[in-house]
Amino acid sequence: MSTIEEKLTKLREDTLKQLKDLRLENQKELQDLKVSVLGKKGSLTEILKGMKDVSQEMRPIIGKHVNEARDILNAAFEESAAYLEEEAIKAQLASESIDVTLPGRPVAIGNRHLLTQISQEIEDIFLGMGFQIVDGFEVERDYYNFERMNLPKDHPARDMQDTFYITEEILLRTHTSPVQARTLDEHDFSKGPLKMISPGRVFRRDTDDATHSHQFHQIEGLVVGEGISMADLKGTLEMIIHKMFGEDRKIRLRPSYFPFTEPSVEVDVSCFKCGGEGCSVCKKTGWIEILGAGMVHPRVLEMSGVDSERYSGFAFGLGQERIAMLRYGIMDIRGFYQGDSRFNAQFKG
Ligand code: DAH
Questions:
Q1: Can you identify the CATH homologous superfamily of domain 114-347?
Q2: pLDDT tens for each residue of 196-247
Q3: pTM for this one?
Q4: Which of 16, 53, 129, 296 could be bridged to 313 by S-S, CB 3.0 to 4.6 A?
Q5: How far is ligand 1, taken at its centre, from the CA of residue 213, in Å?
């Protein structure tokens, strides 16, 4: 068996070699090695157990050697720890360094949704004419959606606007027309006529296809005052259509039926693709149906407590998707709702 001296020397040399050779990956490994050599149950303690066999005279000398070895090893461990720390910082700095000469990453700039653009454009036109813009409720009462629009409970025209009922009396509105009744209820006619538009989302029980969606967007318009006539309706619509589709467009009113207007009209615009000659956009008719309108039914006025002998008005409702699809030749309504940014990016204003 080797002497304590020999064991000490070997431990010293082995440890120093290990420190030098081992590519210690991190502080933890270094710490583990330190514990295994200098710790309470480490190799050095193990060696010291042999001190009991050492003669009295030799003890101070060997003790000195033990201390020496411990000091040297401690110092070596400290040095390694410092070295590791420095290396870690260097590595971190290298990994975090920024190459300022690299070209920048382009920032993707979005744009407003086409439907938002359309409604803002129309809002701006009507704001310029002194209209107010009113928000309605998407969750509406049957009472406002139908009854106040002159569609009592058993009215056959309700079938065309079947919707999602929440209760017997509460539903997702089928059109923006209930905003008419709500604003008529509120309006103070001693302060002048009521002029408003109300854009918003509406819902119908429909099977989705290229031209139908169970939810879509309308803009309701309403003007009520003294002496408002069909000529005002026509003039207003002509103006808006000229602004939206070009000054040389003509409009045509065709008799139609809505329970809340009398008389009612369907409004066509001369085809902006072929100018009236007949093409695929206008289905060879030269005209494109664009909105519904009419003179507000006296009963709608009376239900709001408005004297229909004294006041009259016109109303219209247009579909935002329809306008956008016609204007930009969009073939499939579903593009509006799928959230594919490539769809919307085509309409950067
Ligand atoms: N509310 C009708 C619909 O959704 C559209 C409409 C037609 C609104 C004529 C009106 C109007 O204000 O006068 O089909």
A1: Bira Bifunctional Protein; Domain 2 (3.30.930.10)
A2: 999 999 999 988 899 899 999 999 999 999 999 999 999 999 999 999 999 9
A3: 0.72
A4: 296
A5: 17
